[in-house]
Amino acid sequence: MKIKPLDDRILIEPLEEVESKTSSGIIIPDTAKEKPRVGIVIAVGTDEDLQSKIKVGDKVLFAKYGGEEIEMNGKEYRIVSRSDILAVIED
Amino acid sequence: MKIKPLDDRILIEPLEEVESKTSSGIIIPDTAKEKPRVGIVIAVGTDEDLQSKIKVGDKVLFAKYGGEEIEMNGKEYRIVSRSDILAVIED
Amino acid sequence: MKIKPLDDRILIEPLEEVESKTSSGIIIPDTAKEKPRVGIVIAVGTDEDLQSKIKVGDKVLFAKYGGEEIEMNGKEYRIVSRSDILAVIED
Amino acid sequence: MKIKPLDDRILIEPLEEVESKTSSGIIIPDTAKEKPRVGIVIAVGTDEDLQSKIKVGDKVLFAKYGGEEIEMNGKEYRIVSRSDILAVIED
Amino acid sequence: MKIKPLDDRILIEPLEEVESKTSSGIIIPDTAKEKPRVGIVIAVGTDEDLQSKIKVGDKVLFAKYGGEEIEMNGKEYRIVSRSDILAVIED
Amino acid sequence: MKIKPLDDRILIEPLEEVESKTSSGIIIPDTAKEKPRVGIVIAVGTDEDLQSKIKVGDKVLFAKYGGEEIEMNGKEYRIVSRSDILAVIED
Amino acid sequence: MKIKPLDDRILIEPLEEVESKTSSGIIIPDTAKEKPRVGIVIAVGTDEDLQSKIKVGDKVLFAKYGGEEIEMNGKEYRIVSRSDILAVIED
């Protein structure tokens, strides 16, 4: 099964959220956890300008509550809009 | 009877929602069910750009509460807007 | 008396709502009745693009609470906007 | 005194609302009275496209609560926007 | 001191509101007084299209609560936006 | 330290508000004080059209609660948007 | 790890907020602290016009609650939109 997002949407596989610890080992409280998440781009929408900026395989930072959650083959994905993508991350 | 959607609307026959079970057999609670649904495109609106992206027979993922519900010949359909279509699914 | 809608408006004569029964004869509850309605186009607004898509005599599906209700010669009509028209129905 | 509406506004003299009776003589309850009203166009705004569609003397149907009420020489008028005009009525 | 409004703003000197009486001498209640007011244009904003439609010295009808009140030399003025001007009045 | 506003923003040094007295010496109540304020333009944003209309040193009238307050060298300034500027004042 | 903001976003490293004291040594109350903050631009989004106005290394003033907070290598950053940037500061 292959999902092809429409227009300016992007299919993302969110990466596991590593338990949040500061360098001193203190657990960050819940509210502080509502930060953007990191994910891998699985498919890019049909918009050509978007395709020139975001590629399949890109690691991206996206707004945590942006978009819609979907489930495929037992894994969770998100379909977000371009405006939910904050940045591309290069390791 | 044939329904021809206007402008950027799409007529969809939603597929039955298979009862949600995780691989471990646990029932997903109701709130988690408010995910996008899958349906088959029955008719595409008059917008030409839309017609180049969505075809009759396409299996699409659409926002669960998007659009309007209609009943024809005892079956339920939805007429949704382009912005309610998240992606095309290829098996 | 003749009513000529302005811009993107359409004058519709709503068809009687047949009492809603499912094939098994069960009455659909009230909330389920808030579905789009069917009507006949009596007049189309001055917008040229609209006139190329909607014709006098078309049977259309329109959002139930869209537009404004008017009464002429003892009959009820609705003046709706283009965005309230979901589809044209061909029998 | 002459009032020249600016841009897309239209000066209307609302016609008296005849007491609402159905053909069977039953009085329509108050809520049902919040329908569009009929008025005569007294002056059309400076917008050229508007002037090509609405003429002084036209009988128009306009949204009952649209625009602003003004009083001139003891008579009531309304200045409404183009979007408040639903249709032109030809007798 | 001279005030030169920016962009689409207009400086208005509101005319005194004559106590509201109908021809029969009945005082109009407060709610009915929330009508547009009349004022004299003192200065017109820098927008060229606006300058072609509204001139210094014009008597205008403007939305009563539109814009901002300012005080100069002990007199009250209003700076309103173009959209607050309903019409030009010619005596 | 020099502040260069971005796009359509303007840096303003608000002038002291002289205690409000009418010519009869009566203090204007608090609500009446929520009027536009006067300030001196310290820097104009990068927008070229804005730069052609507002100059450094101009005395301007601006919406009292518009923009953001900043402190530099112990003095208070405001950075407001073009839409917060009502007029330029010439003495 | 390198973060490349998308479109009109900017990655900022906020500077420490020096404890707020007025010249007389009085502590400014909390509400007064909700002022814009200063930060250093770490990366500029893909928008070309933005890149011509904001450069890496610029010290900028940005709306305190604008954008999203992210954490990299134990340091806090913000990704803000162009509209959250008030001004560039030159020392």
UniProtKB/TrEMBL annotation, chains A, B, C, D, E, F, G:
**What are the protein's GO molecular function terms?**
ATP binding; metal ion binding; protein folding chaperone; protein-folding chaperone binding; unfolded protein binding
Q: Where in the cell is it found?
A: Cytoplasm
In terms of SMART domains, this protein maps to: Cpn10
Q: Which domain of life does the protein's organism represent?
A: Bacteria
HAMAP family given in the database record = CH10 (MF_00580)
Assembly mode: Heptamer of 7 subunits arranged in a ring. Interacts with the chaperonin GroEL.
Provide the protein name.
Co-chaperonin GroES
Which organism is the protein's source? Candidatus Kryptonium thompsonii
